[in-house]
């Protein structure tokens, strides 16, 4: 069921509201008017049919005369349209010696077209209120997608058509060189500087022989990426990027007749290319076990077992999907119970069928606990595999796995963008965009006996690749130099080249206007309070039989006692480890039986328990959530298990450069002794010192109904929500003690949110690292500051979006990074401003110089009106697109309450954002972003980075370890 690994064009542009600590919201077109209302989501007609346990999506599929394939999905649940373009080409179509070509081409598709200048398309999408704007490449295809407000149908088609038909007119040597730099930085970040990244690459190289299109990483090698020439790009485009090799899914709020007219207008005149030959490659056959040893800069060893298995939708594929869940699909799985829970040999386990078109891969991956033997772990995995091959799983295990798949499938139909992408996926791989019902049927046809048979046939010991990764030297390919950026004006395409492309059409030069301004309809949470003080927020969202709940408590890291940093996080992590009436394993099994996703976590100022499930299983799921929150056991045996897991997690944390940078930055910005200065895990001493009594005391003092809110979102009526809250949480009483022994705010321990420690430079050594992870930070404002809207808009322009000044300069102009972004994390008690990202090692100093130049520029003079308008628009019109799933709605309203924001916050947010001016954004920059007050944390190769930091000149310059301790 799982799709093959994807490599994306961008890092995430935005998630949800920055004020919620979830990322930017919003957008209103400059000079445009919009009617705002805080209405509950209406039960408008949707395309998904889910009656009687069946799934189907109403749609229309057709082709234009040039072969361009279109799938229309009319769905009026939200005023949004998802544009999802698939080009049926990926690494499977690459020539020898050109690994990574398809993914590099994906990047170049954003480099400008004949009618849309380089960089303009991203700005236009953001200004129009676009969300989920990105592209990705997997082994078998490349896709390009964004979601726009429904009055921008013509704008979206204009952009997509120009990308497909006119990119080749404008791509030049400069654009190619820049994106080669960006993609190579992406490789450094996602493969070479990420724990186990090179291990995963070695696994596929052991599974597939030379010449097989799945052998190389989707992202390719440095040598191959750098060797691509402009003529190669043009040849690839002429062959694969033609209308007869592409499919567009439009899903959302539009009129089909209008869509068809515009599709003909924008795509109908594009020239078809030659038919693309199908790729046929025999699946490799392994007859003797292959064993591979890889060393990496890791603290915990990892075991990976891999088999060739049937291609997507072939006999055995569905059975192995369920086998993966039974073996390693969460806490209820066999391998988790044996190796993580009972024997405590492994830190984590995952088993899954990676379904692909030319042949699939079944993988079992286990990360060992410190000091534990991979050979012993492997022996126990073999025992479990042999047992499943000999004896069918129980009916309960199969039904449990099926429940998980049913929830996953229905959840993918909830969000307009994922619905469109799923239909494109089914269309390419199954030949039927509405294959979801048949997909579900094939899983329902799986039996215990068919699972056993598939495991016995395909997961044999003599047919696998075993990869053991252990701590040691990270061995990378020989360094490939980064050539200087080409200079001079690139040559224009010749007449012969243009003759092979699409004819110029002057009318395409004009950007289409938006349709009639939409009423900005946002969800309104109806708040009420139970007699015990619990706030309940109900956000109805009909349309699909799904529901979500978030229980949020104002009890986070900031409430930790000085002697036990990490206590809030430890407490939250224990909630699923048993209650007064359920053991840890009973909790895990019950969640799995429901096919639900239930998690508990703690952050700086809050703790959460979150539930996502089918509507039919929401009541028992919420009852389980209530039991976890109100009746945790904190048994000594489970606490000891969790201690071992958290100590191992500390070791894993030290492996990841970006995480280390954030941990060290927090220690520097808050200062020693502050509850937020230590990792949320705590430290080794505090983990070992934490016992059940400490956890129980924290829970009694902090988990109180009068300090909590329950948010229910989805296909749940007001009466149902009220009845569920009262019956499950009405008996919750606060502890007798009214004066908690732990601090309730940062101010109670002597810290004020605007305090800032002195600026400095901090370096953490990561020998041999191909990139430097940066965290440039200072204290920031609280969420309730009056100028919060101006801060959001100003930050969007500075570094908060893909088109922001910092990211554009460091990525799109200089090619120093895959992506680097700024963010204001505005909490209830404390705030922080930070700029985070990774840059190529040898340009660490240059990247910092450019970053600080941009920071000083926004303080030197007000932003131009056009830039403020675009940043403001990217904050307002995207509001509906940022609140498009039950899970996000529940999490967002929980965040609003936890931050102490008023009930009508969302109602008033559009007006506040719309009122931001260049002057107010400028005042925000002057007040909250001071280059001279920033702390720079760099995690990278000291031998190469230290001289660059010394030249940068910021003092003092400290050397620290991965825990943030100053080295002497």
UniProtKB/TrEMBL annotation:
Q: Where are the transmembrane segments?
A: none
InterPro entries listed in its UniProt record? Metalloenz_LuxS/M16 (IPR011249), MPP/UQCRC_Complex (IPR050361), Pept_M16_N (IPR011765), Peptidase_M16_C (IPR007863)
The chain positions of domain Peptidase M16 N-terminal read 70-205, 541-651
The residues covered by the Peptidase M16 C-terminal domain are 227-403, 694-874
SUPFAM superfamilies named among the record's database cross-references: LuxS/MPP-like metallohydrolase (SSF63411)
Q: Where would one find coiled-coil regions in this protein?
A: none
Would I find Protein biosynthesis among this entry's keywords? no
Q: Where is the signal peptide?
A: 1-29
Identify one Pfam family in the record.
Answer: Peptidase_M16_C
Per UniProt, which keywords does this protein have?
A: Signal
Decide whether keyword Zinc-finger is in the record: no
The UniProt similarity line reads: Belongs to the peptidase M16 family.
Name of the protein = Pitrilysin family protein
